[in-house]
Structure formats: structure tokens, C-alpha cells
């Protein structure tokens, strides 16, 4: 079923206790924010090509999201990819091909729109976070809305950059992981996405279909 506005604006039901961990990262770099890299879009295209070669017609969409998808925005040197599949529960059809293409299957979250999470974990290579979703995931739409809003709103791009630097510094001082880094900037993310949703005219309870 198409995603509706009501689903997009609904609060995310984060249930970390229901995460099913498959493996752990073999490389755990520190949370470091770097200056914008003009090569990030090209890196995404290279990753996209690898995924397309591995999965072919199983793919519905591949999108570049996260901070590296916003020109001029500082970011962790990690390419975030949203991969929309016909059926993310059919792991037999795509896990092995993705692993052969250089991605490591880390976890599944059946209660969060059947999310599956992979990382690229090659030594001496740039890293990739690969998120697998089904065709009815509002999270994919939220990622796109957040990205597009930052691309056209310098004030919020500056605010988000400041939040990222502060969160990374606090995480380094505390010796925490990327999980705590993400939590430290969550408030700013929520504020920005709310402005983006208001700009689109989305209101709670609206049943319009958006994709």
C-alpha cells in the first residue's frame, strides 16, 4: 500500500529491545565529522551500481540519504543508502548477493517497517550504511523529506552542522559510540523534520497518499 501523510508524521516507535542482531562491525571507527567532500555523490553512484549488479530486478529504488547527500554539509565519511525492495523479509533472495558484493548483514528490525541493516566493512575503504526497506516504509519518505529540506534551507543546514559537531565532541569525550552520538542530535533532527513537514502542509490525520 502507498505511504500516507498520516504515517509519515506519526512518531517513530523506537524499540531497541526488539532488534535482532546478526553480526557486529569488525571495524569501529570513531565518530568524526569531516568537511563536505565533493566526491560523496560519485561514491554513492559507485555503491548504487554494485547493488544493482548484485540484485537486479529485486530493487524498487535506491536513494542517497543522510548528511553526505546534502551538498555543503559536514558529515561522517559514510555514505547512507536507502534500498527499497519488493520484500525485505525474503532474505534468501538478497542477503548472500549483498554479502558477495561487500556488505555485512548486521541486524534486522521486523517491528520497524521490516528494516534490515548492512555495512560495508572493507579495510582501507570508505564505509557505507545500507538500509533495506519494503515499499510501504514511511521512513524512506521521511529520509527524503529531511534531505530535500536541508538542501534548500541554509539556516537549518547550519543548525544541523552545529548539532553534529557538538554531538561528536561530546561522544568523543565520553568515549561513547555512534548510538549515543545519534541520540545527542535527535532533538535537532526532530525540530528540523517538523519544519519540513509544515512546509509541505502535512498534518496529522491526513490520509493523502504521497508515493
Automatic annotation (TrEMBL):
One Pfam short name: GrpB
InterPro entries reported in the protein's UniProt record: GrpB/CoaE (IPR007344), NT_sf (IPR043519)
The organism's place on the tree of life at top rank: Eukaryota
Protein name, as recorded: Uncharacterized protein
Amino acid at each position: 500500500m502507498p505511504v500516507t501523510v498520516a504515517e509519515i508524521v506519526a512518531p517513530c516507535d523506537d524499540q531497541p529491545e526488539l532488534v535482532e542482531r546478526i553480526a557486529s562491525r569488525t571495524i569501529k571507527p570513531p565518530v568524526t565529522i569531516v568537511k563536505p567532500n565533493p566526491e560523496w555523490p560519485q561514491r554513492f553512484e559507485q555503491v548504487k551500481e554494485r547493488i544493482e549488479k548484485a540484485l537486479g530486478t529485486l530493487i524498487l529504488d535506491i536513494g542517497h540519504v543522510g548528511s553526505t547527500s546534502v551538498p555543503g554539509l559536514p558529515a561522517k565519511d559514510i555514505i547512507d543508502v536507502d534500498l527499497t525492495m519488493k520484500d525485505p523479509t525474503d532474505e534468501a533472495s538478497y542477503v548472500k548477493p549483498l554479502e558477495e558484493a561487500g556488505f555485512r548483514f548486521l541486524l534486522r528490525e521486523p517491528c520497524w517497517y521490516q528494516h534490515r541493516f548492512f555495512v560495508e566493512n572493507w579495510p582501507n575503504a570508505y564505509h557505507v550504511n545500507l538500509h533495506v526497506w519494503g515499499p510501504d516504509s514511511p521512513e524512506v519518505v521521511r529520509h527524503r523529506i529531511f534531505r530535500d529540506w536541508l538542501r534548500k534551507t541554509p539556516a537549518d543546514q547550519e543548525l544541523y552542522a552545529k548539532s553534529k559537531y557538538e554531538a561528536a565532541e561530546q561522544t568523543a569525550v565520553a568515549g561513547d559510540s555512534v548510538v549515543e552520538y545519534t541520540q545527542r542530535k535527535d532533538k535537532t533532527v526532530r525540530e528540523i523534520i517538523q519544519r519540513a513537514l509544515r512546509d509541505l502542509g502535512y498534518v496529522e490525520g491526513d490520509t493523502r497518499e504521497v508515493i
